[in-house]
Amino acid sequence: MATRGSYGIAEWYGRDITLMSVEERKAVAIEAVSHHSREKSKRICPFALKETLCSKKGGVCSIRPYTAEKGEVEAQLPIVTVCPMRFLENADLLRWVAKTMLGTSDDVVAVKETPFLKRAGASVGDEESAKAGRIDWLLVDTASTPRRMAALETQSLYFSGGNMRHDFDMYLTSDVLFKPPKARRPDYRSGGPKRLSPQLAVKVPLLRAWGIKMAVMVDDFFFNEMATMPEITGTNDADKLLTAEIVWFVAKYEGAHLVPSRVAYSRLDDSVIALNAAVPMSATDFAAKLDMDIAAPGNQGKKVFNLS
Q1: How far apart are the first and last CA of the chain?
Q2: How high is the mean pLDDT of the chain?
Q3: Other Cβ atoms within 10 Å of 119 Cβ, number
Q4: CA 33-25-179 angle, 5° bins
Q5: 282: burial class by Cβ within 10 Å (0-12, 13-18, 19+)?
Q6: Buried b (16+ CB within 10 A) or exposed e, 163-189
Q7: Which of 162, 242, 293, 295 is deepest in the core (most CB within 10 A)?
Q8: pTM given for the model
Q9: C-alpha closest to that of 85 among 17, 137, 18
């Protein structure tokens, strides 16, 4: 269960903020303020597979809750991934996926953002503008004949609440770590049901018809936010992989690293239900809540509008 507290920076431009000196935090804050204002970052992403400037506005890789008791501020768990580049650290997690899905990481190449859908509208012009959907990563065994491959989606989370720029400004002058004064939390519903679920509903059936299995990479906070998901059972992983429509790869934070935690084999329908992580209200509760909304004086003219 997640610790109660306002979420602030855990890793900043690839570094654990709790291990940074006051001077380092202030220097990074200056850059983050500039970067957040749409200036191009001067920092190289430490997790990218090639030398790439950080594209995450403000440079926050992950967040964590901070609590304050009797003036003592403590950085708590869990750490939550908010930038998908975080999953690429040393390509270790990609090799984990390749070995599980393809049986090897030797002679396997990782191909980024491969188009798989084309727009069909009358306004479509050149081939580039016709691209309508991409696969985050294709892991391709170049030594196999016929060619074997697996698709991989990496899903980080957004956050809701106070703008992170507020924390950047505070770290310009603060000599200590602080509990963010503005409420902020990971927004699972934006990343799971609203973003990942519809993508899987489109991609999995098409790729399945092409003989390509789908893998999904998330961190353990994301996976724990999902509803309980029925998993495919079998005598060995090869049997489970054969039946699975989606293979979930769950990573966890250990010290400064994001490392393999567990693999879950599932069907598409079960995965989508688990991602939605919600059940309908009873009709009685629905009606009672509606009556309360209509009767509340503060809702009049704001949430409730009289049409007569």
Answers
A1: 48
A2: 93
A3: 13
A4: 85
A5: exposed
A6: ebeebbeebeeeeebebbeeebbbbbb
A7: 162
A8: 0.88
A9: 137
